[in-house]
């Protein structure tokens, strides 16, 4: 029996699904994160093998007509040694012709059958991309925390800490956001000067990307609206920059930041466009595999 395999290889988890030609889900599998940029490639491939192996249980891998893997960190596969590790994994699983795409491509395909459009990703980092014939052909942003990632969870967390430091430097009563940041950092506020020094020390003691842990505090604080508005301006800006003038195609929102108040504000800024939200890249990968195997008329997976 012919089937296809779709995989969402994210930073925190790897999920795989086997789908028959009529859209019936035949099996699923799950494991740990499989982003080779954020963890050792050997760990990423081991997690991929576990997830894909789970969805193939009871199936003959030789019956797989296509396999699409949507992966965060695809740039790592430009390293020949890493690419070889992935090829060895596919061979051990009995799969051939595995196509690795970006997580943005499978996220776009998870909510629309349109071949063209825009994808806006805002999680820990941020990037916008132009989709043509279901493939990412150009990007705006995505430079990482040091050079960009405007509007991302990292950016929101950094702005929360900076706003708190500014508040501690003055004499006004600390607002909700500042109090939340200090509480999350485990810092007492009785001595403002000492709290200021301590917050700088705490923020710099961890990997910079850890600032993203303060992002939810921005979404929850009543006095953080200026930061949220700025994030929405930046994200909507890169989404529009990825599009051609007058383009009438969908915009797909992806990532934790866009599932909350920032996402609502971005939608307002994109009024007049068809804005959709991706919820499960795994099924997008499965549908792209089905299109590869059976053509544009392929039946979408029946989600379970």
From TrEMBL:
What are the ATPase BadF/BadG/BcrA/BcrD type domain coordinates in residue numbering? 5-259
Print the keywords alphabetically: Kinase, Transferase
Read off the PANTHER family from this record.
Answer: N-ACETYL-D-GLUCOSAMINE KINASE (PTHR43190:SF3)
Reply yes or no: does the keyword Kinase apply: yes
Query: What organism is recorded for this protein?
Result: Amycolatopsis alkalitolerans
Any single GO molecular-function term of the entry would be:
kinase activity
Q: Under what name is this protein listed?
A: N-acetylglucosamine kinase
User: By its UniProt entry, which CDD domains does this protein fall under?
Assistant: ASKHA_NBD_eukNAGK-like (cd24007)
Fetch the InterPro entries from UniProt. Answer: ATPase_BadF (IPR002731), ATPase_NBD (IPR043129), Euk-type_GlcNAc_Kinase (IPR052519)
């Amino acid at each position: 029996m012919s089937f296809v395999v779709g995989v969402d290889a994210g930073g925190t988890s790897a999920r795989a699904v086997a789908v028959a030609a009529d859209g019936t889900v035949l099996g699923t599998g799950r494991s740990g994160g499989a982003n080779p940029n954020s963890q050792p490639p050997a760990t990423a491939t081991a997690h991929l093998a576990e997830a894909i192996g789970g969805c193939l249980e009871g199936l003959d891998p030789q019956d797989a007509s296509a396999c699409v893997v949507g992966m965060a960190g695809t740039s790592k596969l430009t390293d020949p040694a890493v690419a070889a590790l992935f090829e060895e994994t596919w061979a051990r699983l009995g799969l051939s012709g595995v196509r690795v795409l970006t997580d943005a491509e499978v996220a776009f395909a998870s909510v629309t059958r349109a071949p063209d459009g825009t994808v806006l990703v805002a999680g820990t980092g941020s990037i916008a991309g132009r989709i043509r014939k279901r493939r990412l052909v150009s990007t705006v942003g995505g430079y990482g925390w040091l050079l960009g990632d405007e509007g991302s969870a990292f950016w929101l967390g950094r702005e929360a800490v900076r706003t708190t430091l500014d508040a501690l430097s003055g004499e006004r009563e600390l607002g909700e956001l500042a109090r939340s940041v200090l509480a999350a950092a485990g810092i007492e506020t009785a001595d403002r000067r000492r709290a200021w020094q301590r917050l700088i020390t705490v923020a710099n003691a961890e990997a910079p990307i850890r600032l993203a842990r303060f992002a939810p505090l921005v979404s929850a604080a009543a006095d953080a609206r200026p930061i949220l508005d700025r994030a929405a301006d930046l994200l909507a800006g890169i989404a529009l920059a990825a599009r051609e003038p007058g383009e009438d195609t969908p915009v797909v929102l992806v990532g934790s930041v866009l599932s909350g108040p920032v996402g609502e504000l971005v939608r307002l800024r994109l009024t007049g466009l068809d804005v959709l939200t991706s919820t499960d890249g795994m099924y997008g990968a499965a549908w792209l595999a089905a299109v590869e195997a059976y053509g544009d008329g392929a039946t979408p997976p029946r989600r379970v």
